[in-house]
Design goal:
- 84% of the residues lie in helices and 0% in strands.
- With 137 residues, it is an all-alpha fold.
- The protein has one domain: Up-down Bundle (Four Helix Bundle (Hemerythrin (Met), subunit A)).
- Helix 1 (7-30) packs antiparallel against helix 2 and helix 3 packs antiparallel against helix 4 (107-136).
Amino acid sequence: MIAVTDLPLVNALLNGTSASLLSAGYYFVRHKNIPAHRRCMLLALCSSLLFLISYLTYHFQVGSVRYQGAGWTRLVYFSILLTHTILAAVIVPMVLVTVTRALKGRYDRHRRIARWTLPLWLYVSVTGVIIYWMLYH
């Protein structure tokens, strides 16, 4: 069984997994391998969903964790945290719309929003790992 204290690492691993799958999905769509693209993106969605469940579980039990750094790293941390938090809230409906359009076969509309969804989702996933690193290492 996973202890509550292990969940931040689990969250970082799930965010890293999402970022890797998103990158692979982008590679596959650019190389016209749509089945591989679809698998990667659906797995990224699953990884992000598992992250959200784990993140909420951790913070319901532990509360917030204060950043202990000082000086310029504090400014960097809070700048990353602010953009990460705002975009994490924005990305959820964007991902749902993007995935829904793809599953319904509305590929022209899917592509239009996916051009925005992918980089934002990737940013949120990568900055999630950075935030973990800055908080716990």
